Amino acid sequence: MTGAVLDRISAGWEAALPGRKTVVMGMARTGCAAAAALAKRGANVVATDLKEPAGLAGRLPPEVALELGGHREETFRGCDLLIVSPGVPATNPFIAAALEGGAEVITEIELASRLTSVPIAAVTGTNGKTTTAEMLSGILEEAGFRAPVGGNIGRPMTEMAEEIGEEADVFVCEVSSFQLEWSPTLRPRVAVMTNVSPDHLDRHPDLDEYAGLKARLFANQGPGDAKVVNADDPLTARYLPAGLQQALSFSRKQAPVRGAYANERDIYIVEGRKFRRVCATDDLAVTGVHNLENFLAACAAAHFMGAETGAMARLARRFKGLPHRMEVVGQIGGVTWINDSKGTNVGATAMSLMSAEGGVWLIAGGTDKGTDLAPMLGPARDRVRGMFLIGEAADRFARVFEGEVAVERTGTLGEAVRRAANLAREGETVLLSPACSSFDQFRDFEHRGDIFREMVQELSKGAAS
Fold first, then answer.
1. Residues 300, 156, 304, CA angle at the centre, nearest 5°?
2. CA within 13 Å, CB half, 216
3. C-alpha distances in Å from residue 339, one per residue of 111, 324, 334, 462
4. All domains in the chain, ordered by first residue
5. Where are the strands (E) in 298-442, listed by range?
6. Of the residues 44, 71, 129, 214, which is catalytic?
7. Which of 266, 287, 391, 464 could make an S-S bridge to 366, C-beta 3.0–4.6 Å?
């Protein structure tokens, strides 16, 4: 889709909202933000959810109609516009009903992009996208831009567009594959793909479709835009050949033609044969191969947006990381305890194992996604002293890893922590990196990580007394 077509859509679309019959499906934070923005512009909005969220009416304008505790097919079939939650699969029958009735179906991210003229820097990928988005926002802020961050991270982009509006210089936005299913005109000024590894294959039939959905982030870009891809990942590197947009990449293996590069000592911005040093790799306040790659991706994108290397170096030294992502939560008797509860897929856990220091006692398991565990085998053989398996996935994980490393089915996180505390020795690491979702025993990965942190804090108090 050309830029001219996109401009025509944007110019006329918002003006047609008054009186338009609109359904917002899913009343989490993004749904509430979308419903409020549409009602403000005169759309006739129905907010619907399978559950009955407490206090919802107080978070929405009074003119928004509520249909809670279930969906009504006639509501969907009679609407002109459907804003669908990223948690709803494209095969949902209510989406089908809306489409059969002639409705336009989009996501909240797509809506926000139509309601603002502020450039968007969007980050997608299987792993590292939250950290990369935060790093990119931080570099741009260090460079003097007003660059708020949101999207899939937590703060809806529509909310940012409404509250900050045109005062922002750029919106930095984390975007999931689910959000890209119904975002046909989203056009980032710069679009980053961190990596692609098996995940969400319960929602996407195969890895190629999953990668292709993420690559939709590049589809509407023009000559004034840029994509940034991981040259070291074959599933992302295949998108490097330039389309209408400019192409940048990042690598730890070989200097790109344009983008960001790191050798064992230093980090550089590369433009052809010109190398501009950013900082030493040891200057990064966060450790691990994965964080180095995240920083390279952020540097390449920030460079395209006009940030200087000094801003990148300042961010490298001050960025301390995010909760639940290789977060050091304790040092007890010389043993390092790391909360990597966000490691919800095999690729993330394999990378975390390669980044951990000393012998590793790994706590893994949870809701099994059924993905191939082979990428974890090499790092496990090299790094893992023992593996404590929890949750629904324990039996399948045990069948794969028994004979490779010492395995215990501990069942619960509490028992895994108790066993790790008994066995880990000075210089070793206890790593919670489950390679699974958390929903069998916890609300979400944050809840799992918070409980782990609390358990480690109790161990620390006991060791100190």
1. 15
2. 19
3. 35, 5, 16, 19
4. 3-106 (3.40.50.720), 110-318 (3.40.1190.10), 327-464 (3.90.190.20)
5. 327-332, 335-339, 360-365, 384-390, 406-411, 429-432
6. 129
7. 391
Q: Do 105 and 156 meet the contact criterion of CB atoms below 8 Å apart?
A: no
Task: Out of 17-31, 215-229, 303-317, 451-465, pick the least confident.
Answer: 451-465
Question: In the annotation, is 129 catalytic?
Answer: yes
User: Is 152 annotated as catalytic?
Assistant: yes
Q: Given 21, 40, 200, 447, which residue is catalytic?
A: 200
In this structure, the strands spanning 266-271 and 274-280 are: antiparallel
Nearest to 265, CA basis, from 278, 282, 284: 282
Structure-block tokens of residue 160:
């940012």
Q: Is 200 a catalytic residue?
A: yes
Contact 261, 255 (CB under 8 A): yes
pLDDT for 199:
53
Interhelix angle 374-383/346-355, nearest 10 degrees: 20
Length of the chain: 465
Query: Look-up: residue for tokens 């066995």?
Result: 423
Local structure of 135: helix, strand or coil = helix
Question: What is the CB-side half-sphere exposure of residue 10 using CA atoms within 13 A?
Answer: 18
Pairing of strands 246-251, 266-271: unpaired
Of the candidates 355, 336, 326, the residue with the CA atom closest to the CA atom of residue 425:
336
Q: Say what percent of the chain tops pLDDT 90.
A: 87
d(CA 137, CA 130): 11
The one-letter amino acid at 129: K
- In this structure, the number of other CB atoms found within 10 A of the CB of residue 8 comes to 11
Catalytic residue among 44, 152, 195, 345: 152
- Shortest CA distance to 214 belongs to which of 194, 233, 231? 194
* Mean of pLDDT over the chain: 93
Q: What is the mean pLDDT of residues 300-328?
A: 97
Residue 200 above 60 pLDDT? Answer: no
**Torsion sign (Cα): 284, 289, 294, 295:** positive
Give the pLDDT band (50/70/90) at residue 464: confident
The closest alpha carbon to 271, from 292, 241, 247, 252, belongs to 247
Whether residue 188 contacts residue 120, with contact meaning beta carbons closer than 8 Å, is answered with: yes
Q: Give CA separation, 80 vs 16, 23, 87, 100, 179, in Å.
A: 11, 8, 21, 11, 20
Task: Say whether pLDDT at 4 is over 60.
Answer: no
